[in-house]
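so my prof wants the structure for this chain in the C-alpha cells format not the other one, which i didnt know existed until like an hour ago. anyway here's the sequence
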Amino acid sequence: MLSDGSVDGRRVSRMRIAVGVKSATEARYYLENGAAEVYCGLVGMPNNRLPMENLQGVAHIRRVIALARRLKGRVFLALNDILPRAGYERTCGWIRSLTDAGLFGVILKDPAFMSFLKATDLRPYITLSTLSICFNSKALEFFAGLGVSRVVLPMQMMPENAGRLVRNGLAIETEVFCQPFYYGVNVDFLCSLPCPQTGREKSARAEDFPCLLKFKHSQGGFYMPMPGPDYMLAAFYDYYKAGVQYVKVARWPNSRRQMDLFWKVRRLLKLLDKGVSREAFIHHGRGVDSRPMQYGKSFTYKPIA
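here's what i got, hopefully its the right format
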C-alpha cells in the first residue's frame, strides 16, 4: 500500500475486504475487483464447510496462491474446526508446504491445535475464527498467548460491547462480518453447518439453520428476535468508525448471491469512506439491500461460471 492509501494507483478502503472462495476463478474475480484477501478450505481438511464449498485439492490452492501473488493479494487456508489429534503433524506439514509457496496465513478455531503449532518452528499468521466465540478481553489474551494475530468478532457481538477487543493493545487485528447482510441470532460455535442446499430440502442433522433455531422450553418454542436493518447498519457503521480493519464476506455455495453481497459491501464501504454521518449511512444503506437474507435460496449451490 502506498502512502496515499492506494495499491498500484487503485484507491482502497481503510477497511479491507476478505472473501471466501471455492475456486481460482472466484479468487481472480474478487481480487481484481477490490478484495484484499481471499480464504478457502481444502476437501479432506476440517474447515466447517461442505465439500462443494472447498477447493478440491492442493494443486487448486497453489493456483490461488500464485494468482494472489500476481495481484498483490493474500490467501488464507481455513482450518476452522476441531482437528483430530492424529492429524496434527500432517496438517502442520501442509501449512509449512503452502506457506513456503506463498500462503499468508491460516484461520483456526481449535486452541489445542494452536498450542501444538506454537511448540513447532512454524509461525503462520493466525486468524481466530468467529466460531471460537471470543467475547471478552480475557479470552483474547488467552488466544494471543497461542499466537493469534487477528480475531473475527462473533457476529452476535455489537460495537458497544467490543471496545476492549478492538482497542486491545496486543497488536491483534480485528475483523467483522457485514452485519446487515450476514447475521445469526444464536451463538453457533458448535455448528457444523448442516445447511439445506435448496429452499425445499431439510438437513438430516437439523430441521433448520442452527444460527436461527428456536429455543425449547416448558411453554413452547422461543425465537431470538432478529435485529432490524437500521440497527444492523448502525452496528457496521460503528465498527468501521472504531477502527476494525477487515470486513468478511463468508463463503457461500450460491456464488451469484455471494457476488451480489460483495458488491453491496463495497457500496457500503464507499459511503463510509466518504465520511457520511451515521444517519445518512443508515438512510442510504437501506437502499443497498432491502431483501431479507433468504437463507434457503442463498445456500442453494450455484458455482460461478
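also thought this was worth mentioning. The CA atoms of residues 180 and 232 lie 5 Å apart.
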